[in-house]
Input
Amino acid sequence: MHLKRLRASKNYHMPKKTAKFAVLSSSGPHGKDECIPVGVLLRDILMFAKTLSEAKTILNDSQLLVDGKIIKDYKHPVGFMDVVALPKIKKYYRILLKTGKLVPVEIESKESSFKLGKIISKKALHGGKIQFGLHDGRTFVMDVKKAVYKVGDTVQITVPSQEVKSHQPVAIGNVVMVTGGKHIGAIGKIKKLEIIESPEPNMVLVDIDGTELRTLKDYIFVMGTKASLIKVE
Output
C-alpha cells in the first residue's frame, strides 16, 4: 500500500508537493497519525540519509535501535516517548511532542536506557495478579498487593528489558506534558485535580510558567515529581 504525501501526517515534517508518495508506516502500537516511519525519520528529519535507499542501508546494517531493539524495517513506526539510538555514531533521541508535532530530542546515552510509559489500562488476572497496559502497547504484570498504580499514572521502565524502575502518579505538584487539545507539548505542574461526579471527564489545572491551563485529565502525561525524569529540549 502507498500513502500520498497530501494525506501524510504533519509528524512527517516533509513538504506535501515535492513528490507524490510518502512512506506508509507498518502496523504498531502507535496510530497512523501518531507516529513516524523510521525511514522518514532518518531521511527527512534527522537527515542521516539523502534518499530512502540510503536509509534502508543504515537499517540493514543494524545501526538503528528503537527502545533497545534493532529495527530493519524502514516502515517501522516510532511514536511518543520512544527511544531511538544510533550507537555507531553515538546519537540518541527521544520522540516527544512540540507545537503539536512529534520531534526527536537528542539525549545522553545513559538516558536512552529507559523510557516513560503512561498506564492506560488495568486488568485483574488469575492468581492474584494485575496486568497494566501502557500507551505504547507494552504490558507488565504485578502482584495485586504491590500494584498501587492507577490508570493515568506513569512508570519508568528500562529498555529493552522492561523492568519497572519508578512510578509517577497523577498528583498535585508533579511535572506533566500536555498531549492533547490546543496546547500539545506544553509542560507544567499539576495545580489542581477536578474530579467530576458525572459522565463528564475529570479535569486538571496545570500551571505553565505562571499561566493556568484547564485540560482533560486524559490529556496529561506525568514526567516526574519535583522535576522531569527526561530531557525535554
